[in-house]
Design goal:
The chain has a seven-stranded mixed β-sheet with strand order 3-2-1-4-5-7-6, with helices on both faces. The protein has a single domain, classed as Rossmann fold, CATH 3.40.50.150. It is globular and about 45 Å long. The two termini are about 30 Å apart. It has eight helices and seven strands.
């Protein structure tokens, strides 16, 4: 089970309005933003991607355009409603599949994927559970594969641009607040990842952290 301090498990209502809430958080620029992030991931045709906490599948449909018909994407989510919406949204892509799985518990994938992606999900877990997710990503990646984490950056919430601060306080959980001071790069290195890099977005409030499995 997820922590009582988390909002990571989203019910039917949350799934229905999840994309709208992300658009509000990104001030109506989510589609432009996620396309820019996916470009930074250097996805190549034929690659395989594991999406941890795949939500409504919006990101997966965009990544599918990069991998082409020879690649594959597996999306994992705990919400039945999220999976239903993702299957409907990505129905035109035969090489995208979605499964109901708890991503913080041990997964069966071993050296199967070129990339593992997690987007605005990691912050919603307790630190011990974050460690489990990072270990799952490491195990699922092929040697040389890359783990991409899209989430909040480290910053002082009191200096946050007011519309974002309002949305953050209104919709996010206590774990998200704590995530703002978490050294995620140290956690990645502790689990064996190397070449940890970061790209910042939205006035350095968001970032894409990328780490290589050697």
């Amino acid at each position: 089970m997820s922590s009582v301090r988390s909002k990571v498990e989203i019910g039917e209502w949350g799934a229905r309005y999840y994309d709208i809430l992300l658009n509000l958080l990104l001030v109506g620029r989510y589609l432009h933003f996620i396309k820019e992030v996916i470009e930074k991931m250097d996805i190549e045709p034929g690659q395989s991607i594991l999406d941890l906490g795949s939500g409504t599948g919006r990101n997966d449909c965009l990544m599918a355009q990069k991998i082409g018909p020879q690649g594959k994407i597996v999306g994992l989510d705990i919400s039945d409603e999220m999976i239903r919406r993702a299957l409907k949204r990505c129905s035109q892509y035969a090489n995208i599949g979605f499964k109901k799985e708890r991503i913080e518990l041990p997964l069966a994938y071993k050296e199967e994927f070129d990339k593992v992606f997690i987007s605005f999900v990691l912050h919603g877990f307790e630190d011990e559970q974050k460690g489990g997710i990072i270990r799952n990503a490491y195990q699922a990646l092929k040697p040389g594969g890359i783990f991409h984490i899209l989430d909040y950056a480290e910053f002082d919430i009191d200096r946050m641009w007011f519309p974002l601060r309002w949305a953050f306080v209104r919709w996010e959980c206590q774990l998200a607040v704590e995530f703002l001071t978490l050294d995620i790069k140290r956690m990645l290195r502790a689990e064996g990842f190397t070449d940890v890099r970061e790209e910042f977005y939205l006035r350095r409030h968001l970032r894409l952290v990328s780490a290589v499995r050697p």
